[in-house]
Amino acid sequence: MFLSHIKRWRLTVDGEPIITHCSHLLPVLWDGKPAMLKISSDEAERAGGALMHWWDGVGAARVYAHDSEAVLLERALGRRSLLAMAMDGADDTATRIICSTVAKLHAPREHPRPELIPLARWFRDLAPAADVHGGILARCNLIAAALLADNGDPVVLHGDIHHSNILDFEQHGWLAIDPKGLVGERGFDYANIFVNEDLPTTSTPGRLRRQLGIVATEAGLEPKRLLQWIAAYSGLSAAWFLGDGSTELAESPLAAARIALAELQQG
């Protein structure tokens, strides 16, 4: 799988392959520089590769080379972790770093943007899941439908912002990786800060309200609108898990949805 790109881009293998549910990655050296070769057949992953190139190292890892199926990225070597920070008493600091990084990704560029996936298509699995499961998902779907019907000024979105997708690139700072290549209202990109299933404190009492204030201030977002995006994204995440038969994994985003919906009701 990697051989043709290793030859084409004159790479040296520098580690063992990493296999995810939709991508194959290989640590390599390119012109003596640590890099990561990523190959995927997934539509969103390929859109993300083109988007990484479009960002040109501003807020995201640098792209050394790319084609229709592969991207060669600068490799993160820093030891700091936003997920570890959030779990070790520096949750607010991690959130502010995420917001700062996302703002760089959302900033306009002069050159034409690549072909991206509209948010309405990204949310296509939520309505069928709401029809099947009802309850919280039905409420999240109604909110999502209203948001998508009034999508504000669309911007280029990362699509999968969470603590483990913004890495420490040492002298280059905190940079994003693994975008999905979406386009839509910018509030969507901040929702996963509140929903990340890898962060065990997402449903801790009071956390969402505290982080909501930080994100709304840092990103210049209206808190109610941000809460609506949190509910919508939580519903979509739960729908994906339920669609895969992963009922247990759906509990984390459903918990986030309950908290967001409760906050909306109080507001």
UniProtKB/TrEMBL annotation:
* Pfam families linked: APH_6_hur (PF04655)
Example GO biological process:
secondary metabolic process
Q: Is the NAD keyword given for this protein? A: no
Enumerate the UniProt keywords alphabetically.
Kinase, Transferase
One GO molecular function term of this record is: kinase activity
Q: What is this protein called?
A: Aminoglycoside/hydroxyurea antibiotic resistance kinase
Organism, per UniProt?
Rhizobium tibeticum
